[in-house]
Specification:
The chain is α+β, with helices and mostly antiparallel strands and 79 residues long. It has a single domain, classed as Heat Shock Protein 90, CATH 3.30.565. Helices cover 13% and strands 30% of the residues. A four-stranded antiparallel β-sheet has the order 1-2-4-3, covered by helices on one side. The longest helix is centred in the middle third of the chain and has 10 residues. The two termini are 15 Å apart. The relative contact order is 0.28.
Length: 79
């Protein structure tokens, strides 16, 4: 997970069987709806036999924003 350039980026990967789709009712459709409601993007790569990778990018609100959309988030502490 990173937070830079005005966006939060998350990548989740597993080494399962792959072959999943957002429309499968696996919960990914609901996740997509929530990410898109925040103005974000979600991508899914899940070739059969090769695991699954989900990438999510959500814009971070700037301190002077109008208050619409997500609350401003601080970058994660590094240490």
């Amino acid at each position: 997970m990173t937070a830079d350039s005005g966006a939060l980026r998350v990548r989740v990967r597993d080494d399962g069987h792959g072959g999943t789709h957002v429309a499968d009712g696996s919960g990914l459709a609901g996740l997509r709806d929530r990410v898109e409601a925040l103005g974000g993007r979600i991508s899914l790569q899940s070739p059969p036999g090769a695991g699954t990778t989900v990438r999510i990018t959500v814009p971070l609100a700037s301190p002077g924003s109008s208050g619409c959309g997500p609350e401003p988030l601080a970058a994660p502490e590094r240490g």
